[in-house]
Each structure stands twice: as structure tokens, then as C-alpha cells.
Amino acid sequence: MKNIIIRADDLGYSKGVNYGTYESVKNGLINNVGVMVNMKDTLHGLDLLKPFDLDIGMHTVICAGKPLTDPEKIPSLVTSNGLFKPSKVYRTAEYDVVNLDEVIIEIEAQYQYFLKIVGKKPDYFEAHAVYSANLLKGLEVVAERHDLPLLPFDLDLNPVKFKNNTTITTFMDSMKPNYDPYRTFADTVKFALASPEDNVPMMVCHPGYLDQSIIQQSSLTIPRTQEVDFLCDPKVAQEIEDKGLHLARYTELS
């Protein structure tokens, strides 16, 4: 039986996102959830998911909300008001604006807080929204320091190494025009059926409902609601079963 992963990112981003994630866990397919530990609604989201047996990942943040480090210690990551720089700053920069030493400090702070509020090491360890070589290097440093299951990201269908014996290929189209989660799911299933068992396709979702907080903070809006409906559609679960696929958790991979 071949594996596929369907993951929910952004728990904690807003109460609306938390409720959409809750719905996608309780009545849907989600068994892997990434937590943004620095957001004001993080604890609310974790409380909602307490009844469920899930893999919980650390969705490291450097482009939303407040840092967990004194802003004066990480000037490359923050604006003049002490908040993280928005993701568009990183996307439009001509060079990597992230200072490696500074980002390691913030990643370590987020990891220590994750341990405090979740009560265990993350089941996977990765980053939110920003592509930066120094951010990725910082994640590698902290992952090696604490023996964490680092999950690099690549949105060009290049497989990345996870743990010792698994590669993961990412399918995430929610930021593209005319997004249809069913189409992305079909591509994920097609890849799973055609690939070796140790190359696992991963569909990354961002389920959520829209509230004022998420509308003000995020450019990703309507696709979040689309994904809640998709993830809770019994026809999707039935297709996974009919195709003989296993909806895997990161802790099941070696």
C-alpha cells in the first residue's frame, strides 16, 4: 500500500483558521497539522485539537506576527515596530535579507516554546511561506542540534529527503490562479500510483474560515475555505480507499 500525505498548515494564524482546521480534522482527512507558535491564536488552536490523535509539526514563522525573541537581537527579521517583516519583503528582495545567526536565535526560541505548549518534540520541522537559503540553513542547524525530523521544501516537484529512507514530493497550488484542490489532489494521487513507495507525495493545504484577522494578515483567503470543503468531502476519502492508498502521518515514515 502506497502512502500519501495531506497536511494542514497555519494552525494559530487566526481563530477562523483554527476552526477550519478543526473541521478538517474532526470531519475530514487531516492527520498532520503545522503550528505557528508565535501567533496570538496559537493556544486557541491547540486547545481545539486536544481531543484528536495527530502528528503536530512546527511551522516556523518569520513573516507574520511577533517574534519570540527580543526584536533588537534579530533586526534583519523585523520592521521598525518590532513585528516580523511580511512575506512580500522576502519575495521581492534581490538578495537573502535573512541573517543566519539571527534566524537561528528565533528558530530556537520557537522550538523551545513549541516544547512548552505542545509537550513533545515536533513530528516534523519546517517553515512557513518564505523561501530563504539562510532560513533553511537555520532550520538545519536547529534540527541537528535537537535531533528533529527536518522537512525541507521544494515546490518544483523535486523530491526532498525526509528522515533516512523517505523522499517527499510537494504538491501545493493554493496560491495559483483558478485554484481547485480536487485537481491538485488528482495530481497527488496520480504521482503516488506511479512512484516508488519510498517517494511519498504530499499535498499541502491551508484549511480555514475567513475572519477579519486572517483577511488583514494573509493574501491567501478563498482557497482556505475551498480546502475545508474538499478535505471534508466523503468522496475524497472514498477515492483514497478505492485506490488502495494510505493516508500517512509523518511519524509512520522512516
TrEMBL record:
Transmembrane segments: none annotated. One of its GO terms (biological process) is carbohydrate metabolic process. Pfam families: YdjC. The keyword GTP-binding does not apply. Gene3D superfamilies: Glycoside hydrolase/deacetylase. Keywords: Carbohydrate metabolism, Hydrolase, Magnesium, Metal-binding. Its cofactor is Mg(2+). One of its GO terms (molecular function) is deacetylase activity. This is PTS sugar transporter. It comes from Lactobacillus apis.
